[in-house]
């Protein structure tokens, strides 16, 4: 069931979204050669504490997971697509890093992700990240009252495929609100004009993921959480929480 949020609730989701935005900004700023992934997690955790917010990631355990997620920040490096668990690994020059973060504040949740390169970037990595961001922007542009979920999916998929990149099979965005994952699902590829019609008050986490090698397949790392590209090529991830409104899409996690 899809819950339509009131304008007051959307404003409250914006406050949660701004905690997410601050945490991602702080974590990206802290990311440098020699910094460990655990240190980035602690930076994000500090933002939560300062805001009086809690983490929907910490302790989360979906059906596929062998253990509850042990951190507040997902950190996926190079050929890791999503759900990377922060470890003692220290960042190296040229690492492509994707960070994903959520916050719950006042009973409402925000969720967002971004990708960047530490140190000296490779042009191919910058193109990959830029494509993920363009796909996100295209998906958001399609998130208007009267359109359908398929229009968002088609917009995202068109950008990713035109660049020659793969899209992780079966993974995409989701509804969001009182919980991190709500109906409806938001695929990263699909046919326009299909699926649920978008209405004022819907809130969606739109999140394209792209694989540089052009394949769609992946596998889980031994930790049971981190999803890795099958061909070892690099991946990028971009995400915003977006409210569908009569005035157009409102990005609640804007940085």
Automatic annotation (TrEMBL):
Enzyme class at the top of the EC tree: hydrolase
Keyword Hydrolase: yes
Amino acids binding a divalent metal cation 1: 100, 111, 239
SUPFAM superfamilies: Creatinase/aminopeptidase
Residues of the Peptidase M24 domain: 12-246
Residue runs in coiled coils: none
EC number(s) per entry: 3.4.11.18
Catalytic activity: Release of N-terminal amino acids, preferentially methionine, from peptides and arylamides
Binding site for a divalent metal cation 2: 111, 174, 207, 239
GO biological process entries: proteolysis
Highest taxon in the source lineage: Bacteria
Any one GO CC term of the record: cytosol
Needed cofactors: Co(2+); Zn(2+); Mn(2+); Fe(2+)
Keywords: Aminopeptidase, Hydrolase, Metal-binding, Protease
Cofactor note: Binds 2 divalent metal cations per subunit. Has a high-affinity and a low affinity metal-binding site. The true nature of the physiological cofactor is under debate. The enzyme is active with cobalt, zinc, manganese or divalent iron ions. Most likely, methionine aminopeptidases function as mononuclear Fe(2+)-metalloproteases under physiological conditions, and the catalytically relevant metal-binding site has been assigned to the histidine-containing high-affinity site.
One Pfam family, short name: Peptidase_M24
Residues the entry annotates as binding substrate: 83, 181
GO terms of molecular function: initiator methionyl aminopeptidase activity; metal ion binding; metalloaminopeptidase activity
Signal peptide: none
Family to which the UniProt record says this protein belongs: Belongs to the peptidase M24A family. Methionine aminopeptidase type 1 subfamily.
Subunit structure, as described in the record: Monomer.
Protein task: Removes the N-terminal methionine from nascent proteins. The N-terminal methionine is often cleaved when the second residue in the primary sequence is small and uncharged (Met-Ala-, Cys, Gly, Pro, Ser, Thr, or Val). Requires deformylation of the N(alpha)-formylated initiator methionine before it can be hydrolyzed.
Name of the featured protein: Methionine aminopeptidase
Primary gene name: map
